[in-house]
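User: Can you recover a sequence for this backbone? Please restate the input before giving your answer.

Assistant: Of course. Working from this structure:
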């Protein structure tokens, strides 16, 4: 059978979608190529959140098309995901060498479409239509991340789509309206993963805290999302539960309380704030204030004083003044985030923010981005330094991505720890003493580890 190379741009949702597509192709007999140069089929799973992500994918495909046209004209080329959904047939019009364009509700069709194209049954395929039930089709896992085909961690998609319509965001237009899977369906997938050796599951959704909001009634004061966490928590053999990405509006008292009540729910929260200015938050249509966000942080730290808290922040939103930006800087100082993804505002077509007045010049956005990033890094480094000398529990995930001779794990608060060990420690939950801290990585001393 032919070989396939999949390249993924963007978020963890995209990574999970790519993994499922790869698993479906492998089930049909396709091999996974180590690079595009060795592949018969090259698929780019795209992102539309920022213009830079789209341009990277288009540039990559343009280069591949030119290269293969001369050297290997039979290679099948395809776009998947958010940019494919947004642009559709326009991508084939722009790049005639592209054979396949598949949107966000059609990932489960990719393997069949590749079959059809390679067999000559169809010429070009563009499918960006909505499909009822597509939220329950991404279930396959490869689990090649660790030893002998087993992985310690896995992502489980619990829903698709977004109803928030933040004024800067294209996701509701590329991912569609919110659609949630059933709790039994999700639990069955999680049980299967645990039976295959998975110790930690991350529940994925565009806004996971909106899970089941319309389909599942509150029970004993617990939202549908908390009910789901409880059901997953009951799985024997599962050690840890994470989730991403939530919305501050979804952090009710039931979810905060769950952190203290459910030991498998690790003390780690990714809470996208986007701005520290109430005026900008209102323009963004975020639905909360700075004070409400700080109240959530205070409640979480009351449950777990060392709760690992990360966030997303956008700088340079249209009309953002120096005073607004100062509010974001002061929020970062007040919260002391463990880390933050700092993004430069990027206009997305057909979003309200793209048509707003007072679009900021790129050089000003660059300056603010650098200033905020420096502050975030300074805070993160100090928090990492405070871990030196402490014993922390980690789940060993596999070889370090930067140095495969060492192992890598994560603390419950989501800090990366590198240490020396052997393959048999992969998947274990163990204690390590932190002897050195870099800005974004901790190092454990193998001399004091109980590795026997």
């Amino acid at each position: 059978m032919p070989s396939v190379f999949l390249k993924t741009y963007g978020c963890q949702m995209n990574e999970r979608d790519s993994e499922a597509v790869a698993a479906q192709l492998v089930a049909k007999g396709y091999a996974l190529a180590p690079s595009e140069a060795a592949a018969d089929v090259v698929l780019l799973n795209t992102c539309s959140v920022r213009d830079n992500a789209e341009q990277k994918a288009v540039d990559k495909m343009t280069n591949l098309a030119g290269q293969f046209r001369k050297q290997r004209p039979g290679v099948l080329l395809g776009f998947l995901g958010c940019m494919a959904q947004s642009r559709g047939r326009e991508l084939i019009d722009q790049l005639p060498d592209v054979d396949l364009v598949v949107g966000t509700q059609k990932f489960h069709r990719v393997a069949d479409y590749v079959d059809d194209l390679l067999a000559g049954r169809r010429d070009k395929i563009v499918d960006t239509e909505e499909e009822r039930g597509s939220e329950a089709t991404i279930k396959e896992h490869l689990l090649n991340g660790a030893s002998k085909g087993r992985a310690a961690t896995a992502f489980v998609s619990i829903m698709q789509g977004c109803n928030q319509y933040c004024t800067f965001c294209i996701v509701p237009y590329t991912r569609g309206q919110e659609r949630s899977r059933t709790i039994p369906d999700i639990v069955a997938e999680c049980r299967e993963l645990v039976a295959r050796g998975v110790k930690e599951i991350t529940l994925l959704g565009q806004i996971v805290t909106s899970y089941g909001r319309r389909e599942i009634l509150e029970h004993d004061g617990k939202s549908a999302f908390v009910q789901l966490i409880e059901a997953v928590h009951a799985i024997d053999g599962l050690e840890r539960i994470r989730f991403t990405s939530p919305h501050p509006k979804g952090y009710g008292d039931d979810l905060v309380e769950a952190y203290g009540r459910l030991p498998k729910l690790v003390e780690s929260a990714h809470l996208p704030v986007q701005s520290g200015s109430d005026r900008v938050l209102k323009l963004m249509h975020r639905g909360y204030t700075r004070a409400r966000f700080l109240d959530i942080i205070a409640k979480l730290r009351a449950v777990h004083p060392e709760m690992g808290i990360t966030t997303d922040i956008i700088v340079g939103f249209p009309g953002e003044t120096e005073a607004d930006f100062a509010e974001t800087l002061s929020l970062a100082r007040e919260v002391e985030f463990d880390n933050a993804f700092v993004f430069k505002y990027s206009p997305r077509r057909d979003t309200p923010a793209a048509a707003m007045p007072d679009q900021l010049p790129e050089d000003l956005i660059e300056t603010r981005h650098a200033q905020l990033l420096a502050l975030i890094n300074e805070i993160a480094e100090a928090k990492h330094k405070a871990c030196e000398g402490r014993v922390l529990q980690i789940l060993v995930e596999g070889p370090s991505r930067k140095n495969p001779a060492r192992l890598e794990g994560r603390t419950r608060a989501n800090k990366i720890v590198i240490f020396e060990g052997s393959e048999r420690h992969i998947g274990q939950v163990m204690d390590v003493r932190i002897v050195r801290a870099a800005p974004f990585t901790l190092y454990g001393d193998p001399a004091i580890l109980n590795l026997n």
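That completes the design. Residues 160 and 179 are 5 Å apart (CA to CA).
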